[in-house]
Design brief:
The strands form three sheets. Strands 2-8-7-6-5-3-4 form a seven-stranded mixed β-sheet, with helices on both faces. Strands 9-12-11 form a three-stranded antiparallel β-sheet. About 45% of the residues lie in helices and about 15% in strands. The chain has about 400 residues and is of the alpha/beta class. α4 packs parallel to α11, α5 crosses α6 (about 125-135) and α12 runs parallel beside α14 (about 375-390). The model has no long low-confidence stretch (mean pLDDT about 95). The chain has two domains: about 5-45 and about 290-390, Alpha-Beta Complex (Aspartate Aminotransferase, domain 1); about 65-285, Aspartate Aminotransferase, domain 2 (3-Layer(aba) Sandwich), CATH 3.40.640.10. It binds pyridoxal-5'-phosphate. The site of pyridoxal-5'-phosphate (PLP) has 14 residues, from α5. It comes from Termitidicoccus mucosus. Its EC number is 2.6.1.-. This is Aminotransferase. It is an enzyme of class 2 (transferase).
């Protein structure tokens, strides 16, 4: 048969989904696996959101909707940005897509052409480089390791920019590290990006999952110029435990929003119509939503602190206390194994599933998701400790 396309040959399958699938298959086969690989909250979607979607389904919201999203949802998202971040956007600047992943992809397609370079700070979310390549553009990685708290410095950014650089991807709070930029840090980075006329895709999907009083800031709010160059991607998956609903959002300058909508109109059409009514309830029934989110944050924060403390008790492991998302990214470089070998052996010998740092462009680390039960975290970290003790 003739060969498959360049796209098919060059795409790397998602390593996070692969590790999680392997862990789930072992579990299904009756193995006692402690899974730290999942990128989703272990809570169910709050009832009021499910009920709103069920009511919409029952009442016949089963047809195509406008490509960029149902109007009341676009309005509610615009109001939410104004209320929370003081960002004034028209509903026309808001696009609802089938998942934040697709929002990212369409945003990249809207601004990148073949030959363009895109700066991706590492450790990065696994899908960015693949999406950039699918747009025909070239990813340029800049490693921001634990010595800078996994945060890119303005000097690192400056050094990576070339005349071909078109876009900078930022992700705070971060997957995989949980790192959160302060306002001052982000302002300094945005200043460099604007001076070089870059677009910024700010992936803010973990914006509500913050601890220790950390505050979410968006580059789009810094100045008129910053607003004109920033594409905000977010979504309902992580904040409201709605990963399976596939609802992502893009908030962008009008011309980019229009391009995203047009790309979406030819590739997927609207996000599932009745699901959007559930999302609308998430934004409209504020008190119920806040109660559900607060309960989730209490559990995440407790697990974060516990896992962090236990990891740092293990000789040879060093872990920063991240202030966002639901991941920790311990440094395991002292064991002299590459991270993929470390994770393979950890799963084989101890039945602990974690994702290797090299999947995120940072060998020598592991990504552990604490979006799982307290018991699994306790048991899993004990097993990790004995695994490490045997390596020493
Ligand atoms: N961006 C980041 C950094 C993520 O971690 C994820 C999910 O893993 C997404 C975007 C996309 O989420 P979804 O497609 O479920 O909305």
């Amino acid at each position: 048969p003739s060969p498959l396309s360049t796209w098919a040959q060059n795409i790397a399958p998602s390593p996070t989904l692969a590790v999680d699938a392997k862990a789930k298959a072992l579990l299904a086969a009756g193995e006692d696996v402690c899974g730290f690989a999942a990128g989703e909250p272990d809570f169910d979607t709050p009832d009021h959101i499910k009920e709103a979607a069920a009511a919409a389904l029952k009442s016949g919201k089963t047809k195509y909707a406008p490509t960029p999203g149902i109007q009341p949802l676009r309005e509610a998202i615009a109001e939410d940005y104004a209320a929370r971040l003081g960002l004034k956007v028209a509903p026309a600047q808001v696009i609802v897509s089938p998942g934040g992943k697709f929002s990212c992809y369409l945003s990249i397609l809207a601004v990148c052409s073949p030959g363009d370079e895109v700066i991706i700070p590492a450790p990065y979310w696994v899908s960015y480089p693949e999406m950039v390549k699918l747009a025909g553009a070239t990813p340029k990685f800049v490693l921001a390791d634990d010595t800078t708290g996994f945060r890119l410095t303005p000097a690192q950014l400056e050094a990576a920019i070339t005349p071909r650089t078109k876009l900078l991807i930022l992700n705070s709070p971060s997957n995989p590290t949980g790192a959160v930029y302060t306002r001052a840090e982000l302002e300094a980075i945005v200043e460099v990006a604007l001076r070089h006329n870059l677009y910024i895709m700010s992936d803010e999907i973990y914006e509500h999952l913050l601890y220790d009083g950390a505050k979410h800031v968006s580059p789009a709010t810094f100045s008129k110029e910053a607003g004109a160059r920033t594409i905000i991607v977010s979504g309902f998956s992580k904040t409201y435990s709605m990963t399976g609903w596939r609802l992502g959002t893009t908030v962008a300058p009008a011309s980019i929003a229009k391009a995203v909508a047009e790309l979406q109109s030819q590739t997927s059409s609207n996000a599932t119509t009745f699901a959007q009514y559930g999302a609308l309830a998430a934004l409209k029934e504020k008190e119920k939503t806040k109660a559900a989110l607060d309960a989730m944050l209490v559990a995440f924060d407790r697990r974060r602190k516990f896992l962090h403390a236990e990891l740092n008790k293990i000789a040879g492991v060093k872990c920063l206390l991240a202030q966002g998302a639901f991941y920790l990214f311990p440094n395991i470089s002292s064991f002299g194994l590459n991270s993929s070998e470390f994770c393979d052996r950890l799963l084989d010998q101890q039945r602990v599933a974690a994702v290797f740092g090299s999947a995120f462009g940072a060998d020598g680390y592991l990504r552990l998701s604490y979006a799982t039960s307290d018991e699994i975290i306790k048991k899993g970290v004990e097993r990790l400790a004995s695994f490490c003790a045997n390596l020493k």
